[in-house]
């Protein structure tokens, strides 16, 4: 045991080198793809409703029925939860590297298949789309524990938090890429196939070619995953897994020497025009532009503030502050909600809303990814990170399915087609603020891992300490016996 720990001490003390940054990019591109795939569906669901659920007698464009909308938006989260648990366990059994390639290829295949969803009826298309998005989520789920574990085991203790945070921060660029691709695709289709607004010509407002637009957006997510696959397979096993789980200190030493509901919020505060005043591709373009702006101004800066400050101020302070300011901004949106929905005030609402995303990512969204990769022992690290991530994803599932219903107006005449009355957006924001308060107090149970080695945090260096104590005691006894009697 002492030999393995000496190898890991060297890893903890190693200077930051080029291979650290390479590992960030290789692991981070998986998260780039994850975020793109999970985020892009929210950009095309309005279009799916117009294409497959058009009602010529309705004064408003077609929309996905409640059960279909919940399934399309939430099924990938269900797959992600299952994948986090399964691949987290498998990563500890088979090793990180072997499983890493499996998750990526599953994502590539499912991503392409999602865009090729087939069927002769709307239900058939939605069913196949949901089927493939479940398996897409299953692959994405495996990326969470494996990427976090691999990066934590590669890094030294001085900059470990920043490197894990940098991997996670690639999600922000994935969100941004999703918005940009959707903007480009919708703008290109809109320019090539001009169409009237829905209120002027309901049937003609959605051109047949629009059915290709959402497929292109979804399938594009396979490209970064394919580009990353080769480099993932070239990565060596992490030294910590090799030394502590595989019990091969010599090989470990050798390895060390390589170098969602946002679109509904925007409509509620009148940032987006009413659906009937736009054609299908114009609506897709405006939704994509709005969500891209929030990602650019709130989401991405939050991730990178975490990268720069996590090894300076620590995990605990960032998580506590994140929950505190998320609560403050949620209440700042909810209390004067009617003020924000009046004409001329929607810009202020969007700024406040962007700040909640900033502090989510310069806060618990990042720290709850980083800390589980640090505090568990090597033999269980991937499994336990998968369980922790799955718990977070369970909350996302509740939010994905629940908010669609909860945010509906309390007035039955103002709900979306097929939805029962809900508690309204304002009260939903109060509920979210309450969840943040709960998270704030639970943060006091989280250990601070800044500046400590993984073995110190998990207690895996206790054997060495015991060995040293035994050796010291034995030496003292020998010395005592060597003293001649008086």
UniProtKB/TrEMBL annotation:
An example Gene Ontology CC term for this record:
membrane
Record's keyword annotation contains Translocase: no
**SUPFAM superfamilies hit by this protein:** MFS general substrate transporter
Q: Where is the Major facilitator superfamily (MFS) profile domain?
A: 23-451
The subcellular localization recorded is: Membrane
> Quick one: where is this thing mainly located?
membrane
Transmembrane ranges, per UniProt, are 21-48, 68-87, 99-118, 162-189, 212-231, 293-310, 316-335, 347-366, 386-407, 428-446
Membrane topology category: Multi-pass membrane protein
Recorded GO molecular functions are: symporter activity
Q: What is the superkingdom listed in this entry's lineage?
A: Eukaryota
List where this protein forms a coiled coil: none
Keyword annotations for this protein, in alphabetical order, are: Membrane, Phosphate transport, Symport, Transmembrane, Transmembrane helix, Transport
In terms of InterPro entries, this protein maps to: MFS_dom (IPR020846), MFS_sugar_transport-like (IPR005828), MFS_trans_sf (IPR036259)
Provide the residue span(s) of the region labelled Disordered: 454-486
- The UniProt regions of compositional bias labelled Acidic residues, in chain numbering, are 457-471
Q: Which GO terms describe its biological process?
A: phosphate ion transport
Q: Which PANTHER family match?
A: SOLUTE CARRIER FAMILY 22 MEMBER
Could you identify this protein by its name?
Answer: H(+)/Pi cotransporter
């Amino acid at each position: 045991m002492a030999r393995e720990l000496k190898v890991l001490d060297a890893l903890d003390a190693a200077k930051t080198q080029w291979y650290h940054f390479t590992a960030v990019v290789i692991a981070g591109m998986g998260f780039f793809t994850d975020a793109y795939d999970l985020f892009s569906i929210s950009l095309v669901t309005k279009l799916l409703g117009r294409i497959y659920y058009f009602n010529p007698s309705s004064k408003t464009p077609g929309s996905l029925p409640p059960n279909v909308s919940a399934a399309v938006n939430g099924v990938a989260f269900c797959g992600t939860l299952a994948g986090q648990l399964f691949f987290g366990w498998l990563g500890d059994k088979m090793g990180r590297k072997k499983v890493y390639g499996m998750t990526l290829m599953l994502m590539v295949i499912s991503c392409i298949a999602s865009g090729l969803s087939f069927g002769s009826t709307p239900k058939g298309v939605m069913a196949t789309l949901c089927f493939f998005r479940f398996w897409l989520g299953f692959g994405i789920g495996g990326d969470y524990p494996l990427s976090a574990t691999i990066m934590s085991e590669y890094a030294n203790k001085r900059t470990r938090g920043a490197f894990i945070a940098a991997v996670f921060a690639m999600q922000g660029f994935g969100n941004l890429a999703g918005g940009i691709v959707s903007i480009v695709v919708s703008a290109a289709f809109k320019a090539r196939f001009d169409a009237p607004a829905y209120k002027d010509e309901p049937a003609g407002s959605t051109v047949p070619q629009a059915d290709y637009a959402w497929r292109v957006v979804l399938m594009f997510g396979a490209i970064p995953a394919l580009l990353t696959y080769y480099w993932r397979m070239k990565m060596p096993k992490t030294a910590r897994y090799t030394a502590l789980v595989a019990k091969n200190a010599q090989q470990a030493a050798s390895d060390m020497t390589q170098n969602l509901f946002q679109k509904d919020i925007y409509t509620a505060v009148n940032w987006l025009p009413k659906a009937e005043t736009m054609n299908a591709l114009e609506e897709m373009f405006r939704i994509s532009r709005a969500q891209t702006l929030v990602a650019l101004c709130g989401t991405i800066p939050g991730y990178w503030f975490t990268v720069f400050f996590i090894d300076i101020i620590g995990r605990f302070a960032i998580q506590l502050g994140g929950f505190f300011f998320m609560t403050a901004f949620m209440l700042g949106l909810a209390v004067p909600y009617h003020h924000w929905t009046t004409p001329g005030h929607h810009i202020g609402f969007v700024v406040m809303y962007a700040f909640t995303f900033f502090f989510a990512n310069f806060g618990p969204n990042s720290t709850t990814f980083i800390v589980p990769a640090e505090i568990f022992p090597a033999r269980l690290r991937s499994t336990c990170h998968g369980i922790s991530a799955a718990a977070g994803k369970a909350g996302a599932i509740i939010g994905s399915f629940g908010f669609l219903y909860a945010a509906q107006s309390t007035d039955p005449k103002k709900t979306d087609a097929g939805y029962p009355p809900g508690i309204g957006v304002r009260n939903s924001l109060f509920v979210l603020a309450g969840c943040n308060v709960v998270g704030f107090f639970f943060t006091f149970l989280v250990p601070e891992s800044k500046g400590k080695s993984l073995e110190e945090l998990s207690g895996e260096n206790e054997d060495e300490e015991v060995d040293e104590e035994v050796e010291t005691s034995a030496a003292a006894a020998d010395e005592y016996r060597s003293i001649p009697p008086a």
